[in-house]
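Fig. S4 source data, part A: sequence.
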Amino acid sequence: MKLPAAALAMLALASGALAQLPTVLPAGNDLTFAGNNGTGVGYAANKGISQNLYIAPFAPLFISAVGFRRTATTTDFAAQSIDFEITLSSTTADLTTLSATFANNLGADQAVTFPRTLVSIPAAPANLSPNDFVVMPGQAPWLFGIAGPNLLVQCKSYGPGTNVNAWRMDRCFERTTAGEAISWGRSCSTATINSSSTAPSYLPGSTLTFSLAAAAPNQLAFAAFGFDQTNAGGLPLPADLGPFGMTGCTLLVSLDAMFQTMTDAAGAASIQLPIPSSSGLSGLGFGMQWIHGDPNAGNPLGLVSTAGRLFHVGPLICANRYVYNLSNEASATGTLQAGGPVVKVY
């Protein structure tokens, strides 16, 4: 039985207590960045079009805005302007039937909710939180769920105003044979961080090594571990460590565990972390960061912090898909890709 739009609107109002907005899509990306260093091409920085599919995210309800998250990176984001438009649609397309023809994916309830506008994207530091989204408000609330159970967010970019590569969106990028590790945030230390994994790379059953180099020699070093990049025991992340005696330093991860070691005579240290052999860990995200002694720290504690290292245990299976054209926003067809950007709907 097909419900009329008015009935769906009543259902949307009645289901408000069940569907909690705002919410991050795909689900499971609210506490950590999705990783992969993101992309801006096709739907943020260059001329192009993308359709981003999210599977049955919630019951029928009204959506008033869509937000996009900057990717995890070690480089600050410069301000930029983009000529941007958003169309929302319910759709019956799913992970296997999303079409390379854009028109085939749009439902009867499609609406340009964010008309073409030159948007000023503010500058932002690399020390970002996964809670930080660039929000595009709609002209009016749009009712999701009339034309299908899945949400389609169509983005058109008519070209950048400035700084073509300054805004890169965080996204899930599917990897079927490995996990991933990337660095993000800024350091108040001169040391560098890295990681490696035994085969299979960052998969259950492997052992990852988190390493520190070029730090002060023969100093205490703590590897902070956390599943949350938004909050550490009630302290919003990223957190300024100046009030705690570490002037100019930032905490990037929740302190769910701390591993203590020492730097050697060359200022190097490392810890090894076995990943249990459980397929249930697939997609698990967590972050690590070094906090280590430095006689030249110039702060009361004599400690400094590094950038963070973001890990995702593979295989990474994304609960979203997208189709894109990188050069022509009026193109009728595009390229299909597993994964897609992380969004927040309001």
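Fig. S4 source data, part B ends here. Residues 234 and 254 are 10 Å apart (CA to CA).
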